Amino acid sequence: MAMGAALSLGSAATAQKVNFEEYDLDNGLHVILHHDPSAPTVITSVMYHVGAKDENPERTGFAHFFEHLLFEGTQNIKRGEWMKIVTGNGGVNNANTSDDRTYYYEVFPSNSLELGLWMESERLMHPVINQIGVDTQNEVVKEEKRLRVDNQPYGNFIAQVKKNMFKVHPYRWATIGSMEHLDAATLEEFQAFNKKFYIPNNAVLVVAGDFDGAQARKWIKQYFGPIKKGPAIQRETFTEAPITQTLKAEYEDPNIQIPAIVAAYRTPSMKTRDARVLDMISSVLSDGKSSRLYKKIVDDKKMALQIGAFNVSQEDYGLYVLYGLPLGQNTTQSLLQEMDDEIVKLQTELISERDFEKLQNKFENQYVNSNASIEGIAENLASYYLLYGDVKLINSEIDIYRSVTREEIREVAKKYLNPNQRLILDYIPSKDKAQN
């Protein structure tokens, strides 16, 4: 074990520093360049500071909808041609949406950098947002919701946690949003959303991989420079009142036979030191088969089919979620008691030196792995700029984790993970299957 730990620290110690340069165009687009000639590929990616939290409460799902809609085509890329151009040039592309941001990227052979830049500039400058595109993507999003949420066992689990944990903040609705809202939306509303948020001064462009810096700058200016700056976005601040007594909720899922118990705590922004400590606490409790919850409740006591804890890190608030599915005659309440016992142990006893060393090694490895691919680096650079306000964190965030102490782990557990600060959600099989 000691040798494994030494090897793991050795690999982390040799992790390459991520070099980058950054600058702004006159229209406010922030540009980050990361040169890595180790493979003949290049990634062009744009992250927009718009997510589900920026939506009108009566029009939820817009940010995720745009993730689909903006592949429909542009003034110079015909409808249905986007994917063909990418694959025809040996590339791959994708996009994803969170409550805080939307991210688009292409990975091409390095001789297609100009193509990638042109395509992303087209998405920003000349999107075609028309009724046929809206209608087409409406069906696509409905199918995705049916597949991932409505017909998926436990598919509504996070949505129910958010709905009950946030009273005023837009985190209270699901990222995929409401199909009724999307159906009710007019074409003009979609166009207005695009005009407000898809502007250069609300985005960061990252180019990473094998490219010539001077040439990249020239093309970036050529393709993105002419795009007009948009009006500065006024963002509202939403402050949640602290939770001071246990919240209780129940949700019936027609897709399950086994109930789940969920305990969720509201936690601070991912930008805070405490959020990073909670990441480490989550690892102690449920990362892998040697973690405390798994070893005790699944392995030793054989009380649960599944048990877990995870930290949902977001820009404004986070969530710390524990869940369990009982096995056999065991009840959800007995699982909750076992989980609570482990939290109390974290709040009252320091984790052992050996466990602490394992934990540090794990985070060193995660850090190395997150920057092991050009795609990972590009997304990290964009996120650190857009959501954390500090690109340098790509190299220094690991120092924050390294500086966390055993005492701090105990104190943060005491500060946030208390019974009067949480939601208990009984996630149960539908009482009336006929409703399904």
Automatic annotation (TrEMBL):
The keyword Membrane does not apply. GO terms for biological process: proteolysis. Gene3D superfamilies: Metalloenzyme, LuxS/M16 peptidase-like. GO terms for molecular function: metal ion binding; metallopeptidase activity. Transmembrane segments: none annotated. It comes from the Bacteria. Residues 185-362 form the Peptidase M16 C-terminal domain. InterPro entries: Metalloenz_LuxS/M16, Pept_M16_N, Peptidase_M16, Peptidase_M16_C. Pfam families: Peptidase_M16, Peptidase_M16_C. Keywords: Hydrolase, Metalloprotease, Protease, Zinc. Residues 31-171 form the Peptidase M16 N-terminal domain. Belongs to the peptidase M16 family. PANTHER family: NARDILYSIN (PTHR43690), NON-CATALYTIC MEMBER OF PEPTIDASE SUBFAMILY M16B-RELATED (PTHR43690:SF35). This is Predicted Zn-dependent peptidase. It comes from Flavobacterium caeni.
